[in-house]
Amino acid sequence: MADQSDTTEALLTRVRAICHDFAGTEEKLSHGAPWFHVRGKGMLTFANDHHGDGRVAVWCWSTPDEQRRLVRMDPDVYFVPPYVGVKGWVGVRLERPTTDFEALAALVEEAWRAVAPKRLASAAPVAPPPPVYPTTDPEVVREARARLAEVCATLPGSVVEVATSQTTWRVGKRPFAYLLDNQHRDGIVSVCFRVAPDEAAALVQRAPRRYYRPPYIGARGWVAMHVDGARVPWTTLARRVVASYRSVAPASR
Known about the structure:
The structure is a single chain. The protein has 253 residues and is of the alpha+beta class. Helices cover 32% and strands 25% of the residues. It has two domains: 4-120, Aspartate Aminotransferase, domain 1 (Alpha-Beta Complex); 138-248, Aspartate Aminotransferase, domain 1, CATH 3.90.1150.30. It has a six-stranded antiparallel sheet with strand order 1-2-3-4-6-5.
């Protein structure tokens, strides 16, 4: 059986070939995800297990009418993506056996025609340079997950969920710790935990090479600690994770 990461990379390669079949298409990372655009106008982004949703998909420029038509026609493949769905973009699941890549290519062509300058209409596409994305050390990830699992096993009601780039520990339905592995292709292995908002700011200001505000959840009182450095303060991290657990656990625990 093929490794999941190999399957995902194969799907990205296929999407990349479709996008770069149209003149002027460029690729860069946006929030860690491959983003395809023409002169800065986005037409498609590749979304792998976005926030643990379990999908390998693309979010493609479209119109609201076309989005509704596709979602009604095949909701197992098409969906309304977060953030850009309100603008008419449509999500297309790639790992589904019923996914029609010829239909995807037609959708991408419509997106390209909507964003590309008219002067590119007759231009020939240019093969893109091979992208270079950061990677992380699997041994670092394994050690961090094992250490966190040992800490969280002592916390009543703690459960764990493992996704491609994120391991989540919850009590009830509330998360209290995340292990992030190269999420958004940022090349970082870190652990996120809850703290008071003013404390989060103080930690990042005092030790910016160790702590940082994670995307999206950083504004809601979360801070991340690097665990991919040479000297990780595991005792301090364990104490932080336990405090994060206590901040959300039911009072009876």
